[in-house]
Specification:
Elements: H1 3-18, H2 25-53, H3 60-66
């Protein structure tokens, strides 16, 4: 079993146990992942541009994560 299939199985088990009446919740979560990646990339890009411009002081950890 691959890591991806184990993670998907774990997510599905969690969602079913936590939300037993929401049959399609896991599927909807999976469909949202690509949109979250796009938003995440845009936010990282914005943070980097702000830190390079010097408009906002960034925490050293945030700067390290973005490099």
């Amino acid at each position: 079993m691959t890591l991806q299939s184990r993670l998907l199985s774990t997510l599905e088990k969690y969602v079913v146990s936590r939300y037993p009446n929401a049959q399609h919740r896991c599927s909807r979560l999976l469909l949202r992942l690509s949109a979250l990646r796009v938003v995440s990339a845009k936010v990282a890009e914005k943070f980097l541009s702000l830190s390079l411009e010097g408009d906002v002081k960034m925490n050293a950890l945030v700067l390290e994560m973005m490099n």
